[in-house]
Amino acid sequence: MQVWELISADPDKGAERLVSEYGDRLYATAFRLCLNESDAEDLVQRTFVKVVERASTFKGESAFFTWMCSVLVNFHRMDKRGKARNSLVLGEEISEETPAPAPDPAEMASAADEAAAIRAAVAHLPYQEREAVVLHYFDGLSVPEVARAVQAPEGTVYYRLHEARKSIRKFLSKVFGEERIKADGRGVAQ
Questions:
Q1: For 132-159, how does the pLDDT look when each residue is reduced to its tens digit (9 = 90+)?
Q2: Residue in 41, 50, 61 with CA at minimum distance from that of residue 18
Q3: Domain boundaries, the chain
Q4: Number of CB atoms found within 10 A of residue 27's CB
């Protein structure tokens, strides 16, 4: 029995199975989007509640995880809009495209930690590009699945991934130097 069917039949057992099967993966997605533990935990909790409430509406047109990601992404976008509205009321300056703070490239180079450099590069991306990268590369969703999850045309997702790869290459070249970045731009050379 699929998890959404179990939720409809027995919400308690279904919710338990939902958390055990998807909890870690959904938290990882939320953390990569939120960039902090507290917001990620809250986002996952609200997503699970909504998924349990709405499991009967899942039509199977996409993978179940893709559907859950669309719920998570929608909650995250609502949170971002709410924070933007609050900042306007309080007179604070905020931009949707303001990248998250990233470690100093010189510190990253001295640590020579490629995984940390890649995480920092992804965290530094504008939100819509980070969203596409997280769902596609970290969660393994196909471009059509990402498009459904973020409610954008596939071409837009391809463009966001392209721009994100350019930004990541640029960031990594600052961290590790041009000579360590492969000529084809696919990553850090060994």
A1: 999 999 999 999 999 999 999 999 999 9
A2: 50
A3: 3-90, 105-180
A4: 19
